[in-house]
Specification:
- This protein has 185 residues and is an alpha/beta fold.
- Helices cover 30% and strands 14% of the residues.
- The longest helix has 22 residues.
- About 11% of the residues have low confidence.
Amino acid sequence: MPSRKKYQSRPIKPFHLWQDDSQGSGANIEILPLIDVIFCILTFFILAAVNFSRQQAISLDLPQAKTGVPQMQNILIVTIDDIGQLYVDRNLVSRSDLAWEIKKYHQANPDGLMTLYAAKNSTYREVVEVLDILREVGGARVALATLPEGSQPSATPPTPGLNPAFPGLPDSIDPFSNPPSPPTP
């Protein structure tokens, strides 16, 4: 009787599923480390996209007004924040450069409206100084920006991140988008 070894080309290996077969194997790609690297790269790009897509705005607490009509036209927005810094549109300017920026705007738009956004906590002196500069250089088309009555409650503090008067809207107002309420000339 012939021996069994004669008819077998290789020895029997139980549980042959995960064992290395050096005769018939090609290149193996480990997929788990590859998935880890892909998720790390994906996380990096998502975080970078979120960081770059944030809108930069100056957070102001504007006073409220009962009257006014929206005026959608070419408007120069001058902003005074809580600490007295001046912005023309979205650019930080000094008081000496403010007159030059207004002259440049007034030459390009002789009938244009200049709107002053002053934070509720800005001083009266700062507002009057900027109004004087606006009127000296730009003429009489100067307006003060306000919020409609009831848009910000005065008795209760606002919930962080939400405006209770307008659910779904953030509580900080971006003065560089469309004006939240009509400027009153």
